[in-house]
Design a protein that fits this description.
This protein has eleven helices and ten strands. It has 282 residues and is an alpha/beta fold.
């Protein structure tokens, strides 16, 4: 019989949030694949658990090379437990490759649900939670970051991002540029930890706040684009939407036609707004 792959959520801050089943899996697994074996040792010590199986590292640098080894163990009947530093494996953490490989071999995959920075931040943000999308980490390079943000400039669902503290200033500034300074957002810092902080406000204000320097693990939640009726879309907004589509790769003619449909106005009105904006540009 083949084994079973268990994805286990680990605390994102407070060790008391560890699910009860996590201790059972740590002591009963044949193989424990950990993103950081040192952090795994600290976790097991805090939980008072003695791992019963072999411990191997499984992180971004060796994920591709180690996956076949773990699949072989699973095929041989092993119970393999996958844990990352915090939260659920596969969610912006190692795990996807192993899950995909196990599924391809018809190996059972299950999970020990645990804390999630995505859902915790979303719930605490004060922003709509009925529909949302997780965008992970934005690109490090400024141009690529702006491009990625422009792809979701008109996304109606609430957006959730992870970000490194030293890039938060640049990210919020880019968000304010693409989404508008008035778009509501929440910066969730050090969730469930001693210095937890939820900073809510318009993107323009949050960017100014972040410029002073921010520390800790960061999750950013951004309000989705608001639906606007035709009467609310002025010429500047029509031009902005055309520009976003052009920068995403659409030809101007197609971009103008698409924006006209979105806004419920004649194509000529959008075309005239684009031409006027071009004339006024310095």
């Amino acid at each position: 019989m083949t084994g079973i792959l268990v994805l286990a959520g680990t605390p994102i801050g407070d060790i008391a949030d560890a699910p009860p089943r996590l201790a059972e899996e740590l002591s009963g697994a044949d193989v424990i694949a950990a993103e950081d074996t040192r952090r795994l040792r600290r976790l097991t010590q805090a939980l008072g658990v003695q791992p019963g199986g072999r411990i191997v590292s499984y992180f971004e640098g060796n994920e591709a090379a180690r996956t076949p080894e773990l699949v072989e163990a699973l095929a041989g009947g092993a119970r393999v437990l996958l844990v990352t530093d915090a939260g659920m494996p596969s969610v912006s953490d190692p795990g996807y490759r192993l899950v995909a490989a196990a599924v391809e071999k018809d190996i059972r995959v299950t999970a020990v649900p645990g804390p999630s920075a995505v859902l915790t931040a979303l719930a605490l943000s004060g922003l709509p939670v009925d529909r949302f999308c997780f965008e992970g980490f934005l690109p490090r390079k400024a141009g690529e970051r702006l491009g990625r943000l422009r792809e979701v400039a008109d996304e109606r669902r609430t957006l959730v991002y992870f970000e490194a503290p030293h890039r938060l200033d640049a990210t919020l500034t880019a968000m304010a540029e693409v989404f508008g300074t008035a778009r509501r957002a929440a910066v969730c810092r050090e969730l469930t930890k001693t210095y937890e902080e939820i900073k809510r406000g318009p993107l323009g204000e949050l960017a100014a706040w972040a410029a002073q320097g921010v520390r800790g693990e960061i999750t950013v939640v951004v309000e989705g684009a608001l639906e606007k009726g035709p009467e609310e879309l002025d010429a500047a907004e029509l031009v902005r939407r055309v520009r976003v589509r052009e920068e995403a790769g659409e030809r101007r003619k197609e971009a103008i036609a698409a924006v006209a449909v979105e806004a419920g106005v004649p194509k000529r009105e959008v075309f005239d707004a684009v031409v006027a904006a071009k004339r006024e540009a310095p």
